């Protein structure tokens, strides 16, 4: 028997919305039902839907346009993830970790060379959110911090490659093993990584990023 992980309401809502997009073969720019309709169909409250949409926006699957509605933004990444069915969650996370190391190590090195003050301010804002919020909100801020690093790399092709597999990467911020705070020990390395980027020190940025990844890998293996 496998361990049964606790699934939160907003996670179930986000999965239902992805399944709706997939089963109806919706494309970029297509409109989803209204928030009120979704809540009625799924029997959920506004807060659960809001959290689900925030997650789907963070992973670039939908876009919520105030006063207009909910639109499909991208589908390629989760179509890819739907094809990957790995029974062992620990093995899957460790394999994804290898891919993240390869892509993001380059991103942090380039960010330390090319980041602008605007990029740095964006990263600083997300770090503050990670530190001052809890649970899902902190995880979303953490995800946004790493997306900001890719943006700061100044390489749109690298950023595009990362975005194409971001739905797979998002598992790191979506309570692996049912534990929201599993990677909390890696937070200090977010701060030292950011400092290295601000100081324009690529070697230090690589070092701190690897420390972060080592901490996360150890957390995965210890579960």
UniProtKB/TrEMBL annotation:
<keyword id="KW-0238">DNA-binding</keyword>
<dbReference type="InterPro" id="IPR036390">
    <property type="entry name" value="WH_DNA-bd_sf"/>
</dbReference>
<feature type="domain" description="HTH gntR-type">
    <location>
        <begin position="7"/>
        <end position="75"/>
    </location>
</feature>
<dbReference type="InterPro" id="IPR011711">
    <property type="entry name" value="GntR_C"/>
</dbReference>
<dbReference type="InterPro" id="IPR008920">
    <property type="entry name" value="TF_FadR/GntR_C"/>
</dbReference>
<dbReference type="Pfam" id="PF07729">
    <property type="entry name" value="FCD"/>
</dbReference>
<dbReference type="Pfam" id="PF00392">
    <property type="entry name" value="GntR"/>
</dbReference>
<protein>
    <submittedName>
        <fullName>FadR/GntR family transcriptional regulator</fullName>
    </submittedName>
</protein>
<dbReference type="InterPro" id="IPR036388">
    <property type="entry name" value="WH-like_DNA-bd_sf"/>
</dbReference>
<keyword id="KW-0805">Transcription regulation</keyword>
<keyword id="KW-0804">Transcription</keyword>
<dbReference type="InterPro" id="IPR000524">
    <property type="entry name" value="Tscrpt_reg_HTH_GntR"/>
</dbReference>
């Amino acid at each position: 028997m496998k361990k049964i992980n606790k699934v939160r309401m907003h996670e179930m809502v986000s999965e239902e919305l992805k399944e709706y997009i997939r089963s109806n073969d919706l494309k970029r720019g297509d409109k989803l039902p209204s928030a009120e309709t979704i809540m009625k169909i799924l029997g959920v409250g506004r807060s659960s839907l809001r959290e689900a949409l925030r997650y789907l926006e963070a992973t670039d699957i939908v876009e919520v346009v105030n006063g207009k509605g909910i639109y499909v933004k991208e589908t390629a990444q989760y179509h890819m993830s739907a094809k990957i069915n790995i029974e062992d969650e620990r093995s899957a996370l460790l394999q994804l970790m290898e891919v993240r190391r390869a892509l993001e190590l380059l991103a942090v090195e380039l960010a330390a060379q090319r980041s602008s003050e605007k990029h740095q301010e964006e990263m600083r804002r997300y770090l503050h959110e990670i530190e001052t919020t809890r649970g899902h909100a902190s995880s979303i801020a953490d995800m946004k911090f790493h997306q900001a690093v890719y943006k700061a790399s100044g390489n749109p092709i690298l950023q595009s490659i990362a975005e194409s597999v971001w739905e797979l990467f998002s598992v790191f911020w979506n309570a692996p093993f049912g534990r929201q705070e599993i990677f909390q020990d890696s937070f200090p390395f977010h701060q030292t990584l950011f400092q290295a980027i601000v100081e324009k020190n690529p070697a230090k940025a690589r070092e701190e990023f690897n420390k972060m990844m080592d901490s996360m890998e150890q957390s995965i293996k210890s579960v």
